[in-house]
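Reopening this ticket.

The earlier resolution said the output was attached, but the attachment link was broken on my side. Pasting everything inline this time so it's all in one place.
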Amino acid sequence: IGEMPVQLQVKLLRVLERMSFKRVGGVKDITVSVRIVSATNQDLDRLVAAGGFREDLYYRLNVVSLVVPPLRDRTPDILPLANHFRDRFNTAFKKKFRSFSRAAEQMLIEYPWPGNVRELRNLMERTVLLERGEEVTPEHLQLGSGPRVRRDAQTLGAALDAILGAPELPSDGIEFEKLVEEIERQLILKAYHLSEENQSKTAEALNMKRDKLRYRMKQFGMKDEEPSSRVGHA
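Inline output:
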């Protein structure tokens, strides 16, 4: 509500006072019965004093106020929320993460969470979607750093360069299938993120048929749902 332009504030106030409005181009008043639940991260008292928010609308809306502290000030909530989102995305992506390691829990607790609960939710969605295993470890978490996809690709590229640039193959041989699978997985991940997690665009970027892409993603444990059934972002 704190970003609402003053012109719209006037219209909203009028509706709340009269409990009626006219459609665009309409001539008849339409009576409504509504209850307004609004939210903001702005200091509305300061906005009112600066003229950026109407004082009459502020007092009209300010009947019951709930102040939600930032997540960094609610440390006891972090792990229960992380567990909730992990289990939620386990179901959505058919994964089997059951717990966090102690080191991972400590990372979650100590992180300042500038994006609050939404950032935690997105972290859990990304972790469950992209990682494998039953326990979430610090290596799985992307906190305050660049995309893991990029770091993994750099490591994979270095390993591949070392193999191809060496005069001989390693004495213990090469895990060919695993290496090729990881290259394919990283390419799909990169295209998937650059395509804003749109399967059709990802398939087009990789010159793959969408059915084949979905099969590969399911094979890698990345995604096993139609886009329409995916849990949306908060």
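Reporter confirms the inline version is readable. The first helix runs from residue 6 to 18. The CA atoms of residues 98 and 104 lie 13 Å apart.
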